[in-house]
Specification:
Elements: E1 2-5, H1 15-30, E2 35-41, H2 47-61, E3 70-74, H3 91-94, E4 99-102, H4 110-114, E5 119-121, H5 126-134, H6 148-151
Parallel strand pairs: 1-2, 1-4, 2-3, 4-5
């Protein structure tokens, strides 16, 4: 089982952004992995807005078999989310995955990241990562695996 930490919820209408995560999820699935789609949520957003976005995400993922595999965490926090209220999977199941493939950079908090057996950071935009980290706008927690390019910018 693999857990894919995506960051698509608040950009659900930006199709290209969703496709990046979806292609990774489909690749994991094709390799024989059961995939849990982990989305960090911003608890400062109104609950009804988040619920509508979760419904839209599940609709977009349904044709690919991931609609019932969505789990939630709080953005940058170890605080659990009452995912059952939104019809999403349990975070406790997600942390049992053999690998967390993180496309959120800092969306998964250090303590939550440490609960996974292994974690890998996938840097989908090296240029922005370098800019954000050099300007202290992004603090990426340590992962078990990440590219050398990212390694020079994260602590």
């Amino acid at each position: 089982m693999a857990c894919l930490a995506a960051n698509t919820l608040y950009d659900i209408r930006a199709g290209g952004h969703l496709w990046v995560s979806l292609n990774w999820a489909l690749g994991l699935q094709a390799a024989g992995c059961r995939v849990i789609w982990l989305e960090p949520i911003d608890v400062r957003k109104p609950k009804h807005e988040t619920e509508a976005l979760i419904a839209a995400l599940k609709t977009a993922l349904r044709p690919y078999g991931f609609a019932d595999s969505v789990a939630l965490c709080v953005w940058g926090s170890e605080r659990p989310v009452a995912a059952e209220e939104q019809g999403c999977g349990n975070l406790e199941e997600a942390v049992q995955a053999d690998l967390l493939l993180n496309l959120t950079y800092d969306g998964v908090a250090r303590g939550l990241l440490a609960r996974f057996r292994r974690s890998a950071l996938v840097d989908i935009d090296h240029g922005l990562t370098q800019i954000w980290t050099s300007e202290n706008q992004l603090k990426v927690p340590p992962h078990d695996f990440f590219s050398q390019l990212v390694k020079q910018w994260v602590s």
